[in-house]
Amino acid sequence: MTLGNRLLGALRLGLMLSFLGFSVVSAADPLPSWNDGKTKQSVIAFVEKVTKEGSPEFVPADRRIATFDNDGTLWAEQPLYFQLIYAIDKVKEMAPQHPEWKKGALRIDHQGRHR
Fold this sequence. Notes:
Layout: H1 3-19, H2 38-51, H3 82-94
C-alpha cells in the first residue's frame, strides 16, 4: 500500500468519525494500528483542523464526505478488483495442466468483458 493510499484512507476515516460526531482529539489513539510517525501525525493534525470550529480550515459536518472500501483503503474496482484479475490470470496459467476446465472455462478479459 502506498503512502498516498494510506493517507487518503486515514483521511477518510477521520472525516467519517468527525461526521458521526466523534472527536479525534478526545480519543486515546485514533489510529492505534498505525506506527507513530510523520504520516500518522499529519493525518491527525489535518482531521483536527478541519473539525475544529473556528479553524480557518474548518469543514461543517454537512459538507464532510467519507468513502470507505473494505478496510479503509481504496482498491482499484473498475473494471475489476485486482484480486479477481490475479485469480483469472492464475487460472489461465494453470489451465494447460487441467484440460477438464475447458468445458466451463471463464472467458473474461481485463476490462471485465465476457468473451
